[in-house]
Amino acid sequence: MALKTALMGGIAAMALGFGALAAQAEGVKVGMITTLSGGGAGLGLDTRDGFLLALKQAGEAGSKVDLIIEDDQQKPDVAVQIADKMIQSDKVDLLTGIVWSNLAMAVVPAATAQGRFYLSTNAAPSALAGAGCNPLYFSVSYQNDNLHEAAGAYAADADIAKVFIMAPNYPAGQDSLAGFKRFYDGEVVSEVYTQVGQTDYAAEIAQIRASGADAVFFFLPGGMGIAFMKQYAESGVDIPLIGPAFSFSQDILPAVGDVALGKINTANWSPDLDNAANAGFVEGFRAEYGRLPSIYAAYGFDTANLLLSALARADVTDKDAFRTALAAADFASVRGKFAFGRNQHPVQDIYVREVVKDGDVLTNRIIGTAMTDRADAYGDQCGM
Amino acid sequence: MLLAEQALNGLQYGMMLFLMAAGLTLVFGVMGLINLAHGALYMVGAFACAAVAGATGSFWLGLGASLAAAAAAGALVELAVIRRLYARDHLDQVLATFALILVFSEGTRWLFGAFPLYLTLPPALSGAVTLPGGLQYPLFRLVIIGLGGAVALGLFWLIGRTRLGIRIRAGEADREMIGALGVDIARLYTIVFALGAGLAGLAGALVGTIQSVQVGMGEPVLILAFVVIVIGGIGSIKGALVGALMVGMTDTLGKALLPGLLARVTDAASANAVGSALASMLIYILMAAVLIVRPQGLFGVRAG
Amino acid sequence: MTRETLVNLVILAALIGTALVAQALGEGFVVTLATKAAIFALAGVGLNLALGFGGMVSLGHAAFFGIGGYVCAILASHAASGQPVAVLPFTIAGTNEMPAIWPVAMAVSGLAAGLIGALSLRTTGVYFIMVTLAFAQMIYYFAVSWPRYGGDDGLSFYVRNSFPGLNTFDPIQYFAICATLLVLALGVCALILRARFGLALEGARQNPARAQALGIRPYGLRLTAFVLSGMIVGLAGALYADLNRFVSPAMLSWHMSGEIMVFVILGGVGRLCGPVAGAAIYILLEHLLGGVSDYWQVLLGLLLLGIVLFAPGGLVGLIAPRRRHV
Questions:
Q1: How far is A142 from chain C (nearest CA, A)?
Q2: Closest CA to A48 of A102, A3, A108
Q3: Chain C residue with minimal CA distance to A76?
Q4: What do you get for the CA distance between the two ends of chain A, in Å?
Q5: Neighbours of C176 (CB within 10 A)
Q6: What is the mean pLDDT of residues A189-194?
Q7: Of C79, C103, C65, C94, residue with least CA distance to C244
Q8: What DSSP string runs through C150-163?
């Protein structure tokens, strides 16, 4: 099992030179399970760093969060075992941090069944948003379909007549294409499912070349997207690419390189989003870690602040009160406006971004809004 | 046009598999050794290329470094570990080389971190060229096809026409005899192992350039290389070449054509799902079929 | 009582004792770790039947581990949703009763072992290793790309299946189930190996030509052992699925095959309780070394190398040495 990193929020507070006063309200014990090794480590590191930054900026309030962090190695069985250990042995009140939908599906239902809160910093599969919703489960990031829906809405608005759509052959990939088609009204010339973890896209690029599409929508998270874009650039095909934020987020842009310039993607957050919380977050993150934050860091930061806001209002042992406090979402989100819907998933605006160069650094800039106050397609099926 | 491009893709994939399978089949044919760590040497080549190309800015130096580093790592591993395994049974070989994978993978992660590395092609090799008939195709993939062909010719020449080749063939036929004839077997084995490792390293660097360089990249390719040499027959370079091209073509064309073919008999969504599931199993079905007809592989002379 | 039998009993007692002490101290997670060790040990016992006693170096046993796991998860998820698994002339309904799941898991993985074994056993030596590996990969890729049961995401079933009269969610009670099955499997293996079948298998492994001259047909014998081996590993897979309430293609990956093999080797090939010691040590190492360094697998790799090169009898072999089979 991975290196056990036990970090006390209190250390951060003391580093700032505050005397630790005796806590007025009881603290909360939080278990963070995230990916800190392997090909997907970049996402987990940013989730963790965003979360820690929020605790540090909160000063004394942040010291009430007793945080245990463990690496799931992006393996579902490892995640389940860590969750069991955190619940049975460390007696945490709340779990958070999982990046991947399949790991979330393995951990979240068991955690809520054992009476623990779960705040999602990223993955939010449809199975947990509709009939499978749970009073103890909150998604702070989005519902999985959201960014893909926004890409469909953007393509419809931009009057793109024919698209080629592509995603890996697994549930999140199928949800992605379904989400895109939900709001796209043009013609889908071809719908292609690739292998999970595939690294060579020559065959798909040949199909794209022959398809006669006006644009390509693709959802290929992590290394798959990097490989695809690099090979696409070499192929001489010049049909424009559209994707969700994951393929253009700050953690992978350096690897993709200038090939990414000008590409359109949809996101519910961007480093240039104009609000005070976001300015403080981006500056603070850059000062603390020496790099620009990715969208995963933004979700981690928001999740920690949501937790702190609830902690100020209620005690975690009083589950109903704490749940109400979480649902109020009384915190300054880096996304500006933020509220929870009935199924405890966000209601938020989703933007269209373009990859630009800021000095030497590739980053994203908002160029429009794809959807306003978007909730999700599953809330009606939630019985809460 | 689409079919022609897919056929080129299959050819390129096959050539890459050949570079992997050639070393594996040589090592087995000459030393009777099953080497699971062959994929780790492929990874070493890719990382060496990425590191040297990153430090010097020259892709060509990186490519040379990949050959050198993988061959050196191969020679080192042969001297330190593999040498003790020739007389052992296959189980010990499997385990020791499995252990080597753990050491190489985690060691590389330690040195280079958990993030994938990416290589940039030199301008001379990047972009697409227009082939006769108007087909646009990435230049670098054509280079891989050419390199694979050149390596195949080189190996046939080496095995068939040189002194080293005579010794290798003699070593396959009768190990004791060539020792008795005064050939330094230990040195021969180290050379053959390093040669196979160097080819794997070269393959790793080439593939790392179009895809990505990351820990564990060698394992899926290793298993495909096994399928190739089981089909082609262990110990046969010709078998490795034919097997590699068969596997490359079957896989690429299967993935490209199966969903479309199935869509004629069933609805598009399930044709897609079933088609891609079936396509990913196709090469194993091919292997099973070959085994039923010829358990020793297409060009194999002995079974096991 | 031979020295080896004594060592065997001590190893089993240590595993069970660890769980009981941990339970008494309220360390629920250690009980879970002991359960994991018992399940991996069961898988190792299964592989040992083919590998150690039958001389078949299979690098594809993850296939049976995963199939057992998927059978468990698929039946359980259908029991939860209330939809039948299949409507043939008769209806196959889901179930969440362990006593019903286990035979199905063993039957399906036994069937798979029959098919894979029938083809693979046409080959020997290094071909056999690669062919078993390749068949396991084929099933792995099928599981990854077949979306009906989660594909690469895997399949969760939230609630551990039930066993009449027991609360399976209680770690120590689930450990009791797994440990009992492990002891049963060890007993069955001991009986088989002492019976005519076991002696013939041993004979066919040590000297195929002589066995054939004696009228023993090694193919049928090996295939039977391979199927039995697959069934035991399949049962372990079903238990592992219930431990995590989750299955994914990772259970089918060739790393899993390698790990099961490592349990057998760490303990000592062809020794009845070798896999128990091997699995327990593996879990212990993972837990201890994992706490020391992120890169604990380097240490594991070096340790394995050391054992292969210098202590071919495994760790049980160090304590209870005997002449090695050639």
A1: 19
A2: A3
A3: C248
A4: 37
A5: 19
A6: 88
A7: C65
A8: TGGG-EE--S--BB
| List of chain B residues whose C-beta atoms are within 8 Å of the C-beta of residue A42 | 115
CATH topology of domain A146-267+351-380: Rossmann fold (3.40.50)
Closest to A229 (Cα-Cα) out of B135, B6, B47, B211: B211
Q: What was the pLDDT predicted at C154?
A: 85
pLDDT digits (tens, 9 = 90+) for C99-110: 999 999 999 999
- pLDDT at residue A18 in the model: 38
Chain A CA closest to residue B281: A195
Does CATH number 3.30.460.80 belong to domain A9-142+273-340? no
Q: Which residues of C touch A171 (CB under 8 A)?
A: 147, 150-151, 153
Contact A209 B280 (CB under 8 A): no
Ramachandran angles phi, psi of A101, nearest 5°: -60, -40
Q: Looking at the complex, does the CB of residue B174 fall below 8 Å from at least one CB of chain C?
A: no
Burial group, residue C203, by CB count within 10 angstroms (0-12, 13-18, 19+): middle
* Residue B132, CA distances (Å) to A8, A211, A291, B129 in order: 66, 21, 47, 10
Q: What's the longest Cα–Cα distance across chain A?
A: 68
- To the nearest whole Å, the CA of B182 is away from the closest chain A CA by 47
Residue from the list B6, B13, B210 with its beta carbon closest to the beta carbon of A231: B210
* Nearest by CB: A171 against C153, C159, C293: C153
The residue among A262, A261, A249 whose CA lies nearest residue A220 is A249
Q: How far apart are CA C230 and CA C62, in angstroms?
A: 9
Is residue A267 within 8 A of residue A278, CB to CB? The reply is: no
Q: From CA B140, how far away is CA B122, in angstroms rounded?
A: 10
Q: What is the ipTM of this complex?
A: 0.83
Q: Are B229 and C309 a contacting pair at CB < 8 A?
A: no
Determine the structural domain holding residue B149 and report its residue range.
Answer: 2-122+131-293
The verdict on a CB contact (< 8 Å) between A76 and C29 is: no
Buried b (16+ CB within 10 A) or exposed e, C254-263: bebbbbbbbb
Chain B partners of A37 at a C-beta cutoff of 8 Å?
109, 114
Question: What SS3 class is residue A357?
Answer: strand
DSSP labels, C151-206: GGG-EE--S--BBTTB-TTSHHHHHHHHHHHHHHHHHHHHHHHHSHHHHHHHHHHH
Which residue among C119, C254, C302 sits closest to B288, beta carbon to beta carbon? Answer: C119
Q: Among residues C269, C282, C232, C241, which one has the least CA distance to residue C64?
A: C232
Number of structural domains chain B divides into: 1
d(CA C238, CA A100): 24
pLDDT tens track for B89-100: 888 888 899 999
Residues 6+ apart with CB under 8 A from C17: none
Residues B228-257 have pLDDT tens digits of 998 999 888 999 999 999 999 999 998 888
Q: How far is CA B217 from the centre of its chain?
A: 12
Note whether C154 and A127 are within 8 A (CB).
Answer: no
Query: What is this structure's pTM?
Result: 0.85
User: What's the mean pLDDT when you consider all of chain A?
Assistant: 89
Domain spans of chain C?
A: 3-319
Tell me the domain boundaries of chain A.
9-142+273-340, 146-267+351-380
Contacts of C248 in chain A (CB under 8 A): 76-77, 102, 106
Two tokens at C45?
């016992």
Question: Chain B interface, mutation test: which of A72, A234, A252, A258, most B Cβ atoms within 10 Å?
Answer: A234
Q: What's the rounded Cα separation, in Å, for the pair B206 and B119?
A: 10
